[in-house]
């Protein structure tokens, strides 16, 4: 085992419009943490590369109030945050043994970390053991809060839902509902080839929806047809507005947006009256937080068509996570849903460079940095 | 009675960013309509001056789909639309007598019009007789779909509501709710001195809320304290952002927005997590439909704080109107709510000039053009 620990620290408030991880973070050497009774030492073996690492930084004069929903912001001179799977290197707990794989859902960007086996040092409880039959990639895609579980919970959000909860309209309408054929709903998903989109497409397809995705390239758009999508638009080379008019002349009923700005505007233009938009992310504006913002110009349609737009943040849905895990695990086991990931081999000290290289948008599914071979 | 009829017709698609009524509409002379059996002839005596007259124009390449919610767009070379009260000048119906006052909720901008007493020529049914004890000004403020009834229904929209419907959480929570003291909600209303705002302030106050308004001038802001508002901000001379921080350090729970763009952005910045925004109007962008749009830049907070933003259009709530009228009439009778209007004397042929003069934002409450003395 290494004699010392390392961590990526948030050292510079981003001032450019598209800051690089290499400019914001700095690698620091730290003493190895001490493993006390009832604790385990974990070494990260696979790290999720996601905009999260940049979005959740504390930026002066930009209070998003997300802390109140359970998300802790990274302060200057604190380690960055990430989702990861690690391996138990030392155990002073009866609950974990050497070599166990554990999920660290929202954790410090340190190579080694210690965790109490009673979970009292984390709002997520003790590190979750990864089941033997679940691959590390699958854990960090379909079964991770930032990907598959977000897709699952956002689809069950009032603004992401394609069907009302059972018996919400009373016993009679519940009874009627069992025998009534419901009209097919049309769903639009942006960043369809991303960590959330690749799972969301499959989940909506299972609900009987017509699912349309938006992604960067035609190559990725074609791949999406294997992930629940009926059709996909390559926005970099195709006119999203024209394509939507052709692909969904009936209009969009539910829109799961991960991108914001232009794509949110164009999607909204094609919404049906009384339609619903669930905003899961604002990837296109993530780096501009506090700087110049394009905004949601399509909001004029929100009033004119009585749309409902709901924000979704998975940290506000911790109570729903156990059911989401059970449902997703069942669908994975039965083959009803499959994970999508791009795994890059690398090292812990190469993290920032890898992040910047992987953020070009050329990858498919969740982006994972594998440290196991380094 | 006049030998001929007159009407204001939509003749030019607006191309400037702030078009004047005089540029878009033209006064035309028409033959007097023929009164057939079962019909009445009505002469307008008071017309509502509202942005509606401009918003609801058919503009090429700008499909708002509002028609599907029941609102009929005005085509080029059709008469404009307005809300008005008129007087029955000729009656071939047993249901109406000469001199009856009738409400025409969304009607052609003609001096004289004929209406069937069975209502088969209007989506709003037959002209509604104004009760003897209701003044014309009160009918067109508190009891009109575009003002008081919009305020009432928007407050009962899921995104405008400050309390959940009785028993929505089941019998036990309903029982508990009867005995539980609920924390006070803070409500923000923009265009507080407008037709909707002057009523909405009083309605939210009756629900026990702390109500904060935004209007143009300090003079109007002071007047608002007589219309349910606990405090009001004069945005033209005061910093809305700073004022909100001082007046509502606890944060905003419900935001009824009639203005859009900057005021919507600033209000959203002060929203509490899981807060709700009901968009009733976009007055600041109304004249820019299809042109340059500022947009909703505060939508980044919608995701970060899990806000829900709902559009409201009264034409989608026709079923709720009878209950709204009953409730509002009761509150008016008991003095619990009072109407606010600015009445200007004028003539039918002076309509466009009066509209342009009255749109400066210097008036308080609903703007009414009285033709009775012309």
UniProtKB/TrEMBL annotation, chains A, B:
Q: Which Gene3D superfamilies match?
A: Medium-chain alcohol dehydrogenases, catalytic domain (3.90.180.10), NAD(P)-binding Rossmann-like Domain (3.40.50.720)
A molecular function (GO) term: oxidoreductase activity, acting on the CH-CH group of donors, NAD or NADP as acceptor
Q: What InterPro entries does this protein's entry cite? A: ADH-like_C, GroES-like_sf, MDR_fam, NAD(P)-bd_dom_sf
Q: Which residues form the Alcohol dehydrogenase-like C-terminal domain?
A: 195-323
Quote the protein name from its UniProt record: Ptgr1 protein
Source organism lineage? Eukaryota, Sar, Alveolata, Dinophyceae, Suessiales
Q: Which organism is it from?
A: Symbiodinium natans
Give the gene symbol: Ptgr1
Superkingdom, taxonomy of origin: Eukaryota
For this protein, the record's PANTHER family field holds: PROSTAGLANDIN REDUCTASE, PROSTAGLANDIN REDUCTASE 1
Record-annotated membrane-spanning stretches: none
């Amino acid at each position: 085992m290494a004699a010392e620990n390392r961590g990526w620290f948030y050292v510079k408030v981003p001032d450019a419009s598209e800051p690089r991880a290499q400019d914001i973070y700095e690698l620091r050497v730290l003493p190895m943490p001490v493993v006390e009774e009832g604790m385990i030492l974990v070494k990260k073996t696979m790290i999720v590369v996601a905009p999260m690492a940049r979005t959740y930084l504390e930026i002066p004069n930009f209070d998003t109030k997300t802390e109140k929903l359970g998300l802790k912001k990274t302060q200057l001179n604190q380690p960055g945050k990430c989702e990861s799977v690690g391996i138990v290197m030392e155990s002073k707990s009866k609950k974990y043994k050497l070599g166990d794989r554990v999920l660290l859902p929202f954790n410090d960007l340190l190579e080694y970390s210690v965790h109490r086996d009673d979970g009292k040092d984390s709002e997520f409880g003790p590190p979750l053991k990864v089941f033997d039959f679940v691959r590390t990639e699958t854990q960090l895609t379909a079964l991770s809060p930032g990907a598959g579980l977000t897709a699952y919970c956002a689809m069950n959000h009032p603004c992401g839902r394609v069907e009302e909860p059972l018996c919400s309209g009373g016993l009679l309408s519940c009874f009627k509902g069992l025998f009534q054929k419901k009209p097919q709903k049309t769903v639009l998903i942006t960043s369809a080839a991303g960590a959330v989109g690749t799972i969301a497409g499959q989940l909506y397809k299972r609900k009987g929806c017509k699912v349309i995705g938006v992604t960067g390239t035609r190559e990725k758009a074609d791949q999406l047809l294997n992930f629940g999508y009926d059709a996909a638009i390559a926005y970099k080379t195709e006119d999203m507005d024209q394509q939507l008019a052709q692909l969904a002349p009936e209009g969009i009923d539910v829109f799961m947006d991960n991108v914001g700005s232009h794509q949110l505007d164009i999607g909204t233009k094609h919404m049906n009256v009384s339609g619903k938009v669930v905003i899961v992310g604002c990837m296109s504006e993530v780096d501009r937080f506090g700087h110049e913002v394009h905004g949601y110009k399509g909001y004029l349609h929100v009033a004119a068509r009585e749309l409902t737009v709901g924000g979704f943040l998975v940290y506000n849905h911790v109570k729903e996570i156990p059911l989401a895990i059970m449902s997703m695990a069942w669908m994975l086991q039965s083959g009803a849903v499959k994970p999508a990931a791009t795994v890059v081999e690398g090292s812990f000290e190469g993290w920032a460079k890898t992040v910047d290289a992987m953020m070009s948008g050329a990858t498919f599914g969740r982006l994972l940095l594998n440290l196991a071979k380094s």
